[in-house]
Design brief:
6 helices, mainly alpha, globular, about 50% helix
Length: about 150
């Protein structure tokens, strides 16, 4: 899955969901949360690959650890057995972490979910799209991010 497809999948998921994935209402963010909600990274992980072992890893805040782990993968060709590496292995398998900045791109998307209120997601997502030169092919999404006051279905 290329960066554009990842962005569109995550953005559409978050905008349609309209709420954070949290362990408890108003609690910590989760890859899988209450009511079947999932976060930016969580929506990329199929149910059969998800494990509770990755909960508690803050993808955007632990980005330095993730980047070090990613560097290790590129040098040795192997992940270790830790939860951080397990999460990276899942994402590498699903979206193909081909460049160092892919981890930073995913962390930016996760940051939208974790650090912005849902009402501000359109503005934050538009900024991520601009920062990472995402080319939108979904016309409805592109129009909405250009003018979020229209509403999104």
């Amino acid at each position: 899955m290329d960066r554009n497809a990842i962005f569109e999948k995550v953005a559409l998921h978050l905008l349609r969901q309209g709420a954070k994935a949290q362990v408890t209402e108003g609690g910590f963010c989760a890859y899988r949360g209450l009511g079947g909600r999932s976060c930016a990274i969580g929506c990329l992980i199929p149910d059969e690959k998800y494990t509770k072992a990755i909960e508690g890893i803050s993808f955007d805040q632990d980005c330095e650890v993730l980047l070090e782990s990613y560097e290790n993968l590129k040098v040795t060709g192997e992940f270790s057995t830790g939860s951080v590496d397990h999460l990276l292995a899942i994402l590498d398998d699903l979206v193909g972490l081909e460049r160092y900045d892919d981890v930073e791109f995913l962390a930016a998307l996760q940051g939208v979910h974790d650090h912005q209120e849902p009402a501000l997601w359109p503005i934050a997502l538009a900024q991520v799209a601009q920062d990472y030169q995402v080319i939108l092919t979904n016309e409805e999404l592109a129009e909405f991010l250009d003018n979020p006051t229209k509403g999104f279905k």
